[in-house]
């Protein structure tokens, strides 16, 4: 593990230098380069963007092959227009993402490189509580993301979350809906997706709210604990890694865990919809029609577009049962967003510009990239005009705008509440040294957004 201000210095060093430094001659901002045992990142003190710096830190950490002195003080001197706390969180967060594994099952445990962070002791002490809360919450989310389906069924997910929140029972209320309860409530979409699974893998829904608060904002996370594609089964190369199709749910519970660790009560709640998408004799099929919890009927046009189905019933539960006034969904929803934005940006839809602008500002402060995507009536038509037997289909036949039509499908379940949607299918994983590292993307952004806008003031 890393150390802070250890007395015995290491041989290798990593620090920031100004673009005006002679060593940085002819180099652009955020360039990473080596000189002997020293590694540098070039910064322009007049224009440091936290999201660019965050991205560069992850690349730099992936290049460190030996235990290294990481001089955070050199960065702090150059980022006067940037939030110091956000930078410190970013530094330790990216170390964890690149260098550690919270679910290491190697026969011989792989120890992370023991880097030494050099930082002013009083500055670190001032921000230590926030750093630890966000890192611990992120690592819990990462652990869930890394667990294979044999170890993480929907029920296992619920059990692990309840155990993790045990110390915070005085702060939050947790409610769990099992398969039979959801059937009886009329949640026809999530139960359709999960009907093909064996008993031990049937779907669940879980909600967490702070006690004695109003539900001003609710985040609904997609938790497909494994996605075979259902009857529209995926080919092998697309099925590999589908144990992480529950990343939205992992991030969602992580946001609440971070707030609990910080001791911050907020007018905020979370819902996670959990299911496998299995292929079996009882699995749902194309042209089946199911009635959603809010009453809309959906004809299945693609069983591999299951995430939006379980989210839809989760949204209605948030609105009608938990009385959410505003809501957002977060999901590894479409491969198309990866084509559009790669692993850099999170696609961000919003029905209300003010709400979207507030969130974008929160994301920029902590260092996570988002970029707006459109809602449009033409996309609505693509999911409504195909079927003559139901209100809509779950997946547009025209695949050219599938991220937008997926968002359009979800939008109709927002019941005119201010609504945002985040597609993290690309941004929740990053390749370093040939290995994919799961990233609980948007966790820091949501926490900052909730604290800024919905924290209860004493």
Automatic annotation (TrEMBL):
All copies of domain Cytosol aminopeptidase, residue ranges: 302-309
Gene3D superfamilies the record matches: Zn peptidases
InterPro entries the UniProt entry points to: Leucine_aapep/pepB (IPR011356), Peptidase_M17_C (IPR000819)
CC terms in the record's Gene Ontology section: cytoplasm
A single MF term (Gene Ontology): manganese ion binding
Superkingdom: Bacteria
Annotated PROSITE patterns: CYTOSOL_AP
Record Pfam families: Peptidase_M17 (PF00883)
GO biological process: proteolysis
Alphabetized UniProt keyword annotations: Aminopeptidase, Hydrolase, Protease
Record's function text: Presumably involved in the processing and regular turnover of intracellular proteins. Catalyzes the removal of unsubstituted N-terminal amino acids from various peptides.
Family as reported in the entry's similarity comment: Belongs to the peptidase M17 family.
Protein name: Probable cytosol aminopeptidase
Source organism of this protein record: Candidatus Malacoplasma girerdii
